[in-house]
Amino acid sequence: MRLHFTKMHGLGNDFVVIDAISQRLDMTPELSRRLADRRFGIGCDQVLLVEAARLPGTEFHYRIFNADGSEVEQCGNGARCFARFVRDQGLTRSDDIAVGTAAGPIRLKAQPDGQISVDMGVPQLDPAAIPFQARRRAAAYDLWQGCSALRIGAVSMGNPHAVLHVEDIAQAPVAELGPRIECDPRFPRRVNVGFMQIIDAAHIRLRVWERGVGETLACGTGACAAVVIGRLWGELDEAVEVTLPGGALQIQWAGEGASVTMTGPAARVFEGDIEL
Ligand SMILES: N[C@@H](CCC[C@H](N)C(=O)O)C(=O)O
């Protein structure tokens, strides 16, 4: 069987995007691992499937698979690439697209300058919704790693995130602490881990250890999560520029009960066919 795909990226967080409306595809963890493999497959952080709408009021359904084969609820950089893909392929003419995900519907807006804005929904801070084991909701939690407690914020942007403050992003222990926190038993579905350096109230630097992938060049939901936590800690404004290793995203969050908006680029790299 031959499968047509498009390789895309959002600030270097890279995707294999598949039109699963015009092509029949039975996605499995094995197949997503194979497509994502950088030596034996095409290579990407996530595989994105464009499917027919399932939720009322939406035009499409969006499924996301990490490089380790796990299917996940949300992907922010992927959402911007999804919007660009369905418009470039002529699957829609709309510049305001409602899309269903496992985490509920999201709205994607193509801006005149080519950037895409995504309404990422209302962040969930209740521990049970993240999911995170804690007696009660708090702005910060102590997470014990060996003999030392790390101060973290925890939030769901549809997918789970832990956020830590670091003094110097270049020296952040991402490869050491990332996998340990990802698999901490207090996060029963594992977790994405953001390391945030606050430059000033309108600008942060961020590196993210992604669940099911490892460190990526950018993480859209991670950028939203960091701004939410930074605002809960009283350190950030409503509009924040988030600089990731792959480039910058603009994040806006008015506060409790409001949706988070993320704006940034989406790029197409190449198209191809893979024999399965
Ligand atoms: N790269 C993403 C997040 C992808 C999913 C994540 N690894 C998870 O397991 O939740 C983004 O841009 O948000």
TrEMBL record:
Q: Which reaction does it catalyse?
A: (2S,6S)-2,6-diaminopimelate = meso-2,6-diaminopimelate
List the active site.
75, 75 (proton donor), 219 (proton acceptor)
What is one Pfam family matched by this protein?
DAP_epimerase
The enzyme class is: isomerase
Marked site, Important for dimerization, at 270
Q: Which GO terms describe its biological process?
A: lysine biosynthetic process via diaminopimelate
Q: Which GO terms describe its molecular function?
A: diaminopimelate epimerase activity
User: Where exactly is the site Could be important to modulate the pK values of the two catalytic cysteine residues?
Assistant: 161, 210
**Which PROSITE patterns does the record match to this protein?**
DAP_EPIMERASE
Localization (cell): Cytoplasm
- Please indicate if the UniProt record lists Cytoplasm as a keyword: yes
Record-listed substrate binding positions: 13, 46, 66, 76-77, 159, 192, 210-211, 220-221
For this record, an example GO cellular component is:
cytosol
| InterPro entries assigned to the protein according to its UniProt record, in alphabetical order | DAP_epimerase_AS, DAP_epimerase_DapF
Annotated TM spans:
none
Record keywords, A-Z: Amino-acid biosynthesis, Cytoplasm, Isomerase, Lysine biosynthesis
The EC number(s) attached to this protein equal 5.1.1.7
Q: In which pathway does it act?
A: Amino-acid biosynthesis; L-lysine biosynthesis via DAP pathway; DL-2,6-diaminopimelate from LL-2,6-diaminopimelate: step 1/1
Give the similarity note. Belongs to the diaminopimelate epimerase family.
Q: How does it assemble?
A: Homodimer.
Q: What does this protein do?
A: Catalyzes the stereoinversion of LL-2,6-diaminopimelate (L,L-DAP) to meso-diaminopimelate (meso-DAP), a precursor of L-lysine and an essential component of the bacterial peptidoglycan.
Task: Write the protein's name.
Answer: Diaminopimelate epimerase
Query: What organism is listed for this UniProt entry?
Result: Thiohalocapsa marina
Q: Which gene name does the record give?
A: dapF
